[in-house]
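Quick check before the chapter quiz. The format below is the same one you will see on the exam, so make sure you can read both the input and the output lines.
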Amino acid sequence: MNVAIQESWKPLLEPEFEKTYFKNLIEFVKKEYAVHTCFPKGNQIFNAFNSCPFDAVKVVIIGQDPYHDYGQAHGLCFSVNDGTKHPPSLINIFKEIETDLGIPYPESGNLTRWAHQGVLLLNATLTVRAHQAGSHQNKGWEVFTNAVIKLISDKKEHVVFLLWGGYAKQKAILIDSVKHRILTSGHPSPLSANRGYWFGNKHFSKANFLLEQVAQSPIEW
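Here is the expected output.
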């Protein structure tokens, strides 16, 4: 199956592309995009991979679902297009970076700059129907993205995984915690953050510290 995905990922993910579940998933996605408004745009579905080659992956952040309103989702978890109002979770991410690292709150919510430094911004589900959160869950995307997480765990070393919230924490069983580092906290959504489960986790300085410990360059968050 011909999936438009960055070259370094292709040989690693080809076995998944050939599986029945993935073929059925692609058929489902094609029908959904033909009949409904869906996000992100078709050519941005694999943006997380196309923005961050396999060889470059140093940090993995796992989201759940793409944003489901206009102008927001572009294939990177928690990220929005330039000029788009920052969603609540992203606001809290930037606030934590501000207090953790003393970096001024940014104007743009586009996190492509992170991806280009080796941060894989991976949603568990890569597509969604407009205004219907979770509408493309349990169609096969999670099987695919679980395979991606396990692949990174198996094939790489010293990757920092940031697991925010209960859903992301469930992915820890896919990760070899001897080879890699896993940081967990509450989700940056207001519901969790306002209860004290997000702010103060210092994940951004901690991730950089862990990268520097293995002679990797830190991320400019």
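If your answer matched, good. The first strand starts at residue 38 and ends at 39.
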